[in-house]
Specification:
Thiol Ester Dehydrase, Chain A, apoptosis, membrane, 27% helix, hydrolase activity, alpha+beta, 4 helices, single chain, lipid metabolism, binds Palmitoyl-CoA
Length: 216
């Protein structure tokens, strides 16, 4: 058997590598346990605090001890990609993933996807506006979901073009909506718009390329 690489100190065989690395992992939706939403919500609050406080040294030392304890408590439960509820609990804000914007999907189908939510203090760029880098994160995840909801095979973003049309406020309910414009062979062209009421904040066009067999 051909040997391709090392993982966590173990040699990975070709058949294992195909299953875990050589193709895109197969994700299945999951119903997260009752405390997962609470855990993720508390972690989001913690992130907000982490970027917004100015803490006395003694308080910070104590908090750091407790955070390090939490990290140690969770460490034995690390699982491979695709096995955590994170990102797979589609009914939760941000699909239950701390990385994703904590937005809730309102519409999900071949005609398009719409999601609603707020940018929080954690997403602050400058002068009260969302950081410019957080919009592509929102759009890129939307593009993946739009392609998925359209029934296209797993595709990767080849490009993502964002036009920033107006300042994106924090703590303000916004919507993002998009759909497939056209499909040309492996290429799916997708567009989406970020709105505050009737005001266009940003729009985005992406080229999503269907993966070839074996492409990751
Ligand atoms: C669990 C329950 C929940 C379910 C509900 C949620 C679902 C949720 C799903 C999420 C699904 C994941 C979504 C991941 C979305 C990412 O964010 S992926 C991460 C970001 N993207 C990447 O890392 C991609 C990196 N790039 C690559 O891997 C490779 O470049 C690609 C994109 C696979 C393409 O490589 P390739 O297959 O070798 O393609 P190549 O032959 O170069 O080009 C093919 C054609 O596309 C054109 N093309 C390629 N790149 C470009 C470009 N940048 N601009 C213009 N044209 C281009 C070429 O010119 C060529 O055109 P033709 O000559 O055929 O006309």
């Amino acid at each position: 058997m051909t040997q391709h690489g090392e993982s966590a100190g173990e040699t990975v065989r070709e058949d294992d590598e195909y299953e875990h690395h050589g193709g895109f992992p197969k994700f299945a939706p999951v119903a997260a346990g009752p405390d997962w939403p609470r855990f993720v919500a508390a972690m989001r609050d913690l992130q907000d605090r982490a970027v917004s406080v100015n803490v006395p040294d003694d308080v910070l030392a104590e908090v750091s001890d407790r955070v390090e304890e939490l990290v140690d408590t969770l460490s034995p439960y690390i699982v491979p990609e695709g096995q955590s509820p994170s990102g797979r609990a589609i009914e939760l804000p941000g699909r239950g993933s701390l990385l994703m914007l904590p937005w809730t999907i309102e519409k999900f189908g071949p005609e398009g996807v719409r999601s609603r939510g707020v940018f929080r203090r954690f997403h602050l760029g400058g002068n009260g506006a969302a950081h410019g880098g957080t919009l592509p994160l929102l759009f890129d995840d939307m593009m993946g979901m739009i392609v998925h909801a359209y029934g296209r095979p797993i595709s990767r973003t080849a490009y993502l073009h964002v036009n920033y049309r107006a300042i994106t406020p924090l703590d303000t309910e916004l919507t993002v909506e998009g759909s497939v414009d056209r499909v040309e062979g492996r290429k799916t062209y997708v567009t989406a718009r970020l709105m505050h009421g009737d005001t266009l904040l940003a729009d985005c066009e992406a080229l999503m390329l269907e993966l070839l067999p074996g492409q990751a």
